[in-house]
Amino acid sequence: MLIGLVLCYLKRREFSNTIYYSHFSGIIRLFWNTLLFVIVAFFVAFLLVKTGYSNLVPGITFLLIGWVIYYYFMLIQGLVRLTRSREFNGTQAII
């Protein structure tokens, strides 16, 4: 995953003014958002366990599962838009 991030940063400049630039930017943004979300989720789970609210940790697990679904949805959305030669914008629908 880190190799893909580095490649996106290196290749993104070569594809400026093309539809691929937005796809590279979307992948980079998705990586950093995912990393931030996972770090915050594990920190909250750690705090819940340390403060005695460990019965709430399964809720964090469901949030992580939801984020995985979102992650793959965004990847598939980008792939569909790429095959249709459209720019990637994470706020637009697939169609």
Molecular structure report:
By secondary structure, the protein is an all-alpha fold. It has one domain. Helix content is 74%, strand content 0%. The chain is built from 3 helices and no strands. Helix 1 (2-12) runs antiparallel to helix 2. It is elongated and about 55 Å long. The two termini are 27 Å apart.
**Content of β-strand:** under 5%
Strand segment tally: 0
Query: Which geometry do the CA atoms define?
Result: elongated
Mean pLDDT: 85
Classify the oligomer.
single chain
State the domain count. Answer: 1
**What would you call the structural class?**
mainly alpha
Q: Give start-end ranges of low-pLDDT stretches.
A: none
SSE order: HHH
Q: Separation of termini?
A: 27 Å
Radius of gyration: 17 Å
Report helical residue fraction.
over 70%
Q: Enumerate how many helices there are, as a single number.
A: 3
Largest sheet: none
What are the main properties of this structure?
74% helix; 3 helices; 95 residues; mainly alpha
Which SSEs are present, and which pair or pack?
Elements: H1 2-12, H2 19-50, H3 57-83
Helix pairs in contact: 1-2, 2-3
Compact summary:
With 95 residues, this protein is mainly α. The protein is built from three helices and no strands.
